[in-house]
Amino acid sequence: MEDHILEVKHLKKSFYDSKKGREIQVLKDISFNMKCGDVLSIIGPSGSGKSTLLRCITQLETMDGGEVRVCNKNMVVPGSNPIRYAPKADLAEIRLSTGLVFQNFNLFPHLTVLQNVTLAPIRVLKLEPHSARIRAMRLLKRMGLESKARAYPCELSGGQQQRVSIARALAMNPKVLFFDEPTSALDPELTGEILKVIKSLAEEEMTMVIVTHEMAFARDVANQVLFMDDGVVVEKGTPEYVFGQSQNERLQSFLSRFSQNG
Amino acid sequence: MISDLQNLLPILAQGFGTTLAIFGLTLLFSIPLGLLVAVLKMSKYKVIRYPVAFYISVMRGTPLLLQIVAIYFGSYYLSQSAGADFSFDRFPAVIVAFSVNYAAYFAEIFRGGIESIPKGQYEAATMLGLSKSQTFFRIILPQVLKRVVPASANEVITLVKDTSLAQVIAVTELFALAKKQQAVYASIFPLFVAGIFYYVANLILSVFFSYLERKLNYYR
Ligand SMILES: Nc1ncnc2c1ncn2[C@@H]1O[C@H](COP(=O)(O)OP(=O)(O)OP(=O)(O)O)[C@@H](O)[C@H]1O
Ligand SMILES: [Mg+2]
User: Fold this and answer.
1) CB within 8 A of A145, min separation 6: which ones?
2) How confident is the model over B201-219, as pLDDT tens digits?
3) Is residue B6 included in any domain, yes or no?
4) pTM of the model
5) Other Cβ atoms closer than 10 A to A249
6) Neighboring chain B residues of A119 at a CB cutoff of 8 Å
């Protein structure tokens, strides 16, 4: 039981909808666990709460209820109601064990590729600039981007920018790496290079959570698939189960919509 | 004419020195103050935000001329009625008035710049564990600087011309001295020369700012 690297229990989140003038519950009751080296893909229709789920776990949003544990550290005081978050120092520690790759990269445009990757290791992890650069170059080499180290993000293609942002996240040595639609902002011919990188990370047992609309990829790369609809986990299981055996109606209709759209 | 110019130039150059002093000191104080005011105006606390908004609207809604007079004479009357004996000298009064006035304009420019930085930049910085101040000074501010250069250049060029308002409390800057010489020579020639001083100063500034803009164009 204790070897879970990420535990999410009964996570709930509401947003105030100013048009409707009331709270809308976006995440109703989300629970799942991940072990070290697991790769979880999260699929589901637009608006089902996938991004919100990642943003709650990565502390970019606050949740309203439930529990999250990362590497056996509690993000909220267990059993607190209304929920109380853990002390700042714990939250900072949890944050450092999570990394997030954004849909639109969010690279720092005024810094070179190398500076993007070394900034946080130097300023936050307090690495020597020299060793931070060596590590960054190793990561960039993995991404096939050593020759771009001195370039600025605007000089790169979308696929290259996304690979830099993956290197930037990896430079912090996260225990769990989250991806929110890492290929959605890319031209179709550039998605392959990102998927390849994520696959190679999976082979190295990097624990990852990937929100994606690429069904084939979700099936190939993951050892667990979670299908969300309307703020709840509808189906959860191995790729074989979710994409093959499950008879769930909502899942079926979601997947059939996908195969129609290509 | 040539000998007129020989007499005139040292006098006007002296006035231009005062003009430059007003210009330089105002920038020195108003830019950091403007940055501070911009940050305060975005505070989540109304007790901070509202007074700051009021200060900005007064500075922008009343003539600088009036503000100079108010600070010079106002400080005197106020301290008299409080039983103290304080008043600004002319030159410091001008610097204070210009600085608080220009800070308000710079604040609005800086605030616009800060608010134009996408939320994703903050989120990426947060995810990497950067502190609030690291995020502001290493991620946000450098990008803001690039965005505010064109608008700030306009303010700086206006400031060169606005320095002539200092004469309202008899500070002998370039324009005040030129006007005096106009009476001496009974000719508008001194004013013409003063005009050249202002014009050349602004020409240099605009060359500098377009250089700066080009320099900052290494990224988009
Ligand atoms: N900051 C917010 N304020 C109010 N409502 C929000 C906010 N963020 C998300 N929502 C709402 O929450 C719901 C879920 O959004 P979310 O972005 O998590 O969906 P998603 O599954 O990631 O969708 P997509 O596949 O389109 O990215 C949506 O109805 C959205 O409008
Ligand atoms: Mg989303």
Assistant:
1) A113, A160, A163, A164, A167
2) 999 999 999 999 999 998 8
3) yes
4) 0.90
5) 9
6) 128, 130, 138
Closest CA to A55 of A25, A13, A23, A87: A13
**Residues 108-127 in B contacting A (C-alpha not used; CB under 8 Å):** 118, 120-121, 123-127
Is 80 exceeded by the pLDDT of residue B185?
yes
Give me A202's structure tokens.
């999976």
**Rounded distance between C-alpha atoms, residue B20 and residue B160, angstroms:** 8
Q: pLDDT-derived band of residue B220, with 50, 70 and 90 as boundaries?
A: confident
The answer to whether residue A141 sits within a structural domain is yes
How many structural domains comprise chain A? 1
What tokens does A207 get? Answer: 């624990």
CA distance A9 to chain B (A): 22
- Is residue B203 included in any domain, yes or no? yes
Q: How many domains does chain B have?
A: 1
A212: CA distance to ligand 2 center in Å? 9
For residues A64-89, give the mean pLDDT. Answer: 93
Q: Residue B201 has which token pair? A: 């100063």
CA-closest candidate to residue B30, choices B57, B66, B63, B56: B56
